[in-house]
Amino acid sequence: MTLRPLIAMMTEQEIVNFLLTNRVPRRLLTRFMGWFSQIEQPLVRDLSIELWRLFCDVDLADAKKTDFTSLHDCFVRELKDGARPIDANPAVLVSPCDGIVGACGTVTGGELLQIKGRPYPLRELLGVPEWADEYVGGRYVTLRLTAGMYHRFHAPHDCAVERVAYIPGDAFNVNPPALKRIDKLYCRNERALVRTRLAAGGHVITLVPVAAILVAGIRLRFLDLSFEPRHGGATVIPCDVRLRKGAEMGWFEHGSTIIVLAPAAFAPCDGVREGRVIRMGAPLLRLP
After folding, report:
1. Are residues 147 and 8 in the same domain?
2. d(CA 126, CA 106)
3. pLDDT tens column, 34-58
4. Where are the alpha helices (H) located in 23-168, listed in sequence order?
5. So what's the pLDDT on residue 6?
């Protein structure tokens, strides 16, 4: 097969993927999946887990337990102790999750890239203007979690969580076909903002977990709080929670994306580049 038909075929596959996951009743499908995934009937549980593993390349070898009560229980699984070594270097900010490095770089003109050629404004992403002002010229890394990955996220450094905000929104898919076609996608989807201050140097790091289709909610363990899809404006929650590097912060009820925002003086660690698969606890950004 020559290159041109192969490219055309890939484009058609992307279009089909986009239509099947975005031109559907996204919220209705998401609510249904949230209900269905928690069914504990053994036949439904076993078939749904096997289908998920068949299509999503799921590796359960590092899961803490091997018997699950439901598809949801398997999806939000914990890991065995030591399955994700945490880089102990105090000069390194580690990845908060397993993921594929998407767009990464410098916040230029108040904008980030969701994919090449698709910028979006930081102010719209955060919804809190004074939070956005702190990252003018700063660094960002987008980490996309595929459906088969480990879906809990963790503290990237010793830190204090100062505020959390929840912004309701849509549930578009966040895979590459959608990122290529939908402007300001991350600004349109449901998301949480987790504002942290590092114990080292007092730098402010913000994590933005972004929900997507089939995501039934974003759970923050340190607040014992679950954000469920709803309408209305942003909700800001003051807090003062101390977390050690690598401590669990929460999880996606299904899966999506985390955007890491850091001040300008931070620099990417060696090997952090678009398309690379990174594991939670691996070096992500170097502190100034």
Report:
1. no
2. 16
3. 677 788 999 999 998 888 888 888 8
4. 26-36, 42-56, 71-75, 122-126, 129-133
5. 38
Instruction: Report the distance separating Cα 117 and Cα 57, nearest Å.
Output: 30
Both 122 and 228 in a single domain?
A: yes
Same domain for 119 and 255, yes or no, is yes
By residue range, what is the domain housing residue 197? 92-286
* Cα-Cα end-to-end distance for the chain: 49
Whether 209 and 67 map to the same domain: the answer is no
Residue 242, φ and ψ in degrees, nearest 5: -90, 130
Query: Is 80 within a domain?
Result: no
DSSP per-residue codes, 188-205: HB-EEEEEEEETTTT-EE
- Global pTM reads 0.86
Residue 233 φ/ψ, nearest 5 degrees: -90, -175
Q: Which helix (H) or strand (E) is 37 found in, with range?
A: none
Do 221 and 105 have their domain in common? Answer: yes
Domains held by the chain: number: 2
Name the residue type at position 110: G
